[in-house]
Amino acid sequence: MHHPFTRRQALALPLQTLAASKALATTASPVSPNTLHFGPHFKFGVSSSAYQIEGAVHEDGRGPGIWDIFTHQPGHISKHGNGDIACDHYHKMPADIALIAGAGIKNYRFSVSWPRLFPDGNATVNPRGFAFYDRLIDELHAHNITPWLCLYHWDLPQALQDKGGWTNRDTSARLAEFSSAVSHHFRDRVANWLILNEATVQAIFGYGNGMHAPGQRGRVSWFAALHHLNLGQGLSIQALRANNVPGRIGTVACCEPVRPSTNSEADTTAALKFDAIWNGSVLKPLFHGSYPELVQEDFAPLCYTNDLTNIHQKIDILGVNYYSRLHIQADATNPIGAYFGPDHEASRYTVMGWPIEPDGVFEILKHIHDTYGQPEIFISENGFASTDNSKGSGLDDEGRIAYISDHLMFVKQAIDAGVNVSGYFVWSMMDSFEWNDGMKWHFGLVKVDFITLVRTPKHSYYWYADLIRSHAGKSLEASTL
């Protein structure tokens, strides 16, 4: 999670896909859990990331990461927030896993902290860091919850950033070494491996416009970071295959339809370029072994012999993070001449200013299916932001319920259209540190009081539990017919 902009918008999918998605109607009210059924093998889950929930940044041998440094520099984070404590999941992990189990959730996507496991980047192992994740994974299995382990969710060790971070191609090799070591250690208890979370978002906001850690700016660093993330992903997939890791190997990308803010030629050109970066520069080299034509010149100086071959790897599953379409306008102040603009069509927004466009999830799923064959896909993030309502309990979150149910309806439409979608993971289980927005926004099914750290399930937690229970009952009934 996520993107630090407001009123994002966008373009560039085939006209027949756009027409199909527009023909589908949206709803503004939650549907009954009894009306949503996806078959017996569909997986419902929740997602999180290490830096956003763990805290304990100075404990048990953990080293500094780029977010530790970035959040303590003035002006970077809303209300001066940081992840020093976050949700204190490091100490409250067993109770948090019990909360997941209490809703009947059987799948949990989480990330491991690179600075906690290898404080200096790779050479020095931290046994106490590995012991924490040993306990976490064992706790998941004790509650019959399937682990989905993401190896890298933006928390690069500062020791590697001091050498250039993702602008240094050597970091790609370090990620592969890290992935190999982690997969070797947990191979007997993890069957779902995800290499990266949102390479595009880290490259653009961490190395392009400086809004995320490590705060670098510029066109050169933007494209260098994205290419080296892609390369590190490919090398990591090869490392896991070399380890004969059991189970499935995949990755997570933020994939969203891109449209121009207006019909002007400038905005249309900008949207095409942005789509080539946001979606195409992650998916096309992975599935087809080349960068989109519109950005090939940008990546050409970075591509060494065999780079594209190393990036072009077979995966078993693709996680898709979706929140809304992207609406793009020409912007001469941006390194690529394009940036987020207003949405002139949306009628509903979250408190963050993000348009609520559930039909866009159908649009992007169909596009991936039509363009890249038939990869197995799961929705790895989808969620609704709210504020901490000081006048009430903050537990009445009917907007979140409506948001989730609306998106699930369009996921079902995609499945009915032939797209191989195998699961849906809510972002997120509990309120957490939201990157440069600090604790300003709340995405959780469970409320976290960031002063007392008390957890309290919201209405959406119980609705999701009812959905899962109803779905399981229907699946059992169908299997006995």
Q: What is shown here, in short?
A:
With 481 residues, the chain is of the alpha/beta class. It is 40% helix and 13% strand.
List keywords for this structure.
481 residues, alpha/beta, TIM Barrel, eight-stranded parallel barrel, three-stranded mixed sheet, 16 helices, globular, disordered N terminus
Q: What does the secondary structure layout of this molecule look like, with pairings?
A:
Elements lengths: L14 H8 L20 E5 L2 H4 L12 H6 L17 H14 L4 E5 L2 H4 L9 H16 L3 E7 L5 H4 L8 H17 L5 E6 L1 H9 L11 H24 L5 E7 L3 E3 L4 H24 L7 H4 L7 H5 L5 E5 L4 E5 L7 E3 L18 H13 L5 E5 L16 H19 L4 E7 L18 E3 L6 E3 L1 H21 L2
Parallel strand pairs: 1-2, 1-11, 2-3, 3-4, 4-5, 5-7, 6-8, 7-10, 10-11
Antiparallel strand pairs: 8-9, 12-13
* Envelope shape: globular
Indicate the low-confidence ranges by residue numbers.
Answer: 3-27
Termini separation comes to 41 Å
Strand content: 5-15%
What is the top-level CATH class? Alpha Beta
The radius of gyration over CA amounts to: 21 Å
Give the structural class: alpha/beta
Mean pLDDT: 91
| Helix-strand string | HEHHHEHHEHHEHHEEHHHEEEHEHEEEH
Q: Could you give the order of strands across the largest sheet? A: 1-2-3-4-5-7-10-11
Q: Count of helices? A: 16
How many DSSP E strands?
13
CATH architecture assignment: Alpha-Beta Barrel
